[in-house]
Amino acid sequence: MNSIVELPAARRAAPILASGPQTLHLMQPHERRRWDAFVRTCPDATFFHLSGWQEVIEESFGIKTWFYYVQQDGRIQGVLPLAEIRSRLFGHSLGAMPFCVYGGPAALNEGARRMLDLAAHDLAESLGVGHLEYRGMQRVHPHDPAWHTKELYVTFRKAITEDDEANLNAIPRKQRAMVRKGIKLSLVGEVEDNVERMFEAYAASVHRLGTPVFPKKYFALLQQVFGDECEVRVIRTVQGELVSAVLSFYWRDEVVPYYGGGTELARSVAGNDFMYWNLMQAAAARGCRLFDFGRSKLGTGAYDFKKNWGFEAQALPYEYKLYRASALPDNNPLNPKYQLFIKMWKKLPLPVANALGPYIVRNLG
């Protein structure tokens, strides 16, 4: 049956009649540019569908990936990046994608989406995983009882304008006062071409939370692979003291602060509030019109912080299909069985925590 392939409006010239069969493929290294060209124009795609994630995840964590795409008449119709995590502690899973907040199939039509879905199902069965996970912003299988979801994560996304004053006034009064505190203290925001100080602030922050740190190599690879679309922003005092830092992604007209943290000094000088305001200013000047504050778990401090900025929570209905597992995964710090681990981790010397952390986080995704 013939079908009309729709391209985004900016590149649409005339309908293209597709007459050939749809076929499934695994992305090869020489096809990355072609893959990314599709992702950048597909309405369903996100920054986390870009081909660079294959290199980042495989080289940082030694995790196996499969980047499937469907093709028709020489044109990509849909993509689905997948990665396998095999852990004695946290189980065996296949997901789209570990270490990414958004994922799942991104396709132009239902035929391509079904073919990608079947590929994921076949791979999950052949690997013998406990479950398959899609991290989409919308459910792919809302009426399929084989797929489950649960209320755990939300995302915070809000429009911004080119007007700094309007963006500042949109922040609720109490949080706006914290931003102004950082401004009055003359905190400085700088973009850096390395991850050294960013890693220092981030590692200190997650250690205080009792969370294992990602390897520094991972952050360096993100910056190397994604280039201008990955920014490292450091906040310091006028005397040069490190306050906080954030690694952000730029995607279309959006900015996504993804990894951030502050030193002990940050709390007394409102360093984190100033950091996100400084990023918002820079992103607005760069042409961004949406600030994606990212994923948070319900009932956490990060959730409350973002709500206090005037952002509305949007549920993330991640989907799970069980294979060898009998229950949905529950690998998150709110799970009571991890509380003792968190308390112990906080007591570790920071250098020890930084050395051990990468061996644990590769199993979490």
TrEMBL record:
Highest taxon of source: Bacteria
Annotated InterPro entries: Acyl_CoA_acyltransferase, BioF2-like_GNAT_dom, PEP-CTERM_FemAB-rel, PG_Glycine_Bridge_Synth
Domain BioF2-like acetyltransferase, first and last residues per copy: 173-307
Stated name of the protein: FemAB family PEP-CTERM system-associated protein
Taxonomic placement: Bacteria, Pseudomonadati, Pseudomonadota, Betaproteobacteria, Burkholderiales
